[in-house]
Amino acid sequence: MNDITSPSVSLSSRLKGETAAQHERMHRLMERGNPFSSREAYARFVAAQYLFQRDIEHLFADPAVRAAVPDLDSRGRQQASRDDLADLGAAVPEAPIASVGVSMPAALGWLYVSEGSTLGAAFLFKEAQARLGLSAEFGARNLAAYPEGRAQVWRRFVASLDSEQIPFADHDQVIAGANLAYDRFGELLQHHFQLN
Hints:
This protein has helices spanning about 10-20, 20-35, 40-60, 65-70, 80-85, 105-130, 150-160, 170-190. The protein has about 200 residues and is mainly α. The protein has one domain: Heme Oxygenase, Chain A, CATH 1.20.910. Helix 2 packs parallel to helix 8 and helix 3 runs antiparallel to helix 8. The longest helix has 27 residues, at about 105-130. The N and C termini lie far apart (about 40 Å). The mean pLDDT is about 95. It comes from Uliginosibacterium sediminicola. This is Biliverdin-producing heme oxygenase. InterPro entries: Haem_Oase-like, Haem_Oase-like_multi-hlx.
């Protein structure tokens, strides 16, 4: 049996395994926040999403991040979240950018959390459509798939993670970055849904 921290285990596999508890914690926070109970509740989720996506897109200016993820400009949902808030008649929240000072390789961990949430947002998008009457053109842009489709864009990101450009020695820092990103999104959900 392979040790999960051995060089033979891919970075994407380690990220999935070593952040599984964090991923589950986000599910529980979302359940407690119940964002699809009303458009007002959903707007609280979008406010959290907007601030998190702003943190993510702050990382896009780093040349090392751009080199590691060549299609970076096609990613990120800050503007989509901002447009959704306008659709919902909700204020755009203000807060300091939490990713200031984050750089490679930890920045890849932050991107992993964001890209994973885009992949997993298919269910949330269906809920927004069915329960709140929202769409990719109104209110739920931040949950919509990329034009190329979720799976294809996710596979390209995983290929970037698992490329030889990301040396094994950097893997722990990428995972630490992912945990910090999960912590940040969890704090945002707790704040916007007023959860203890």
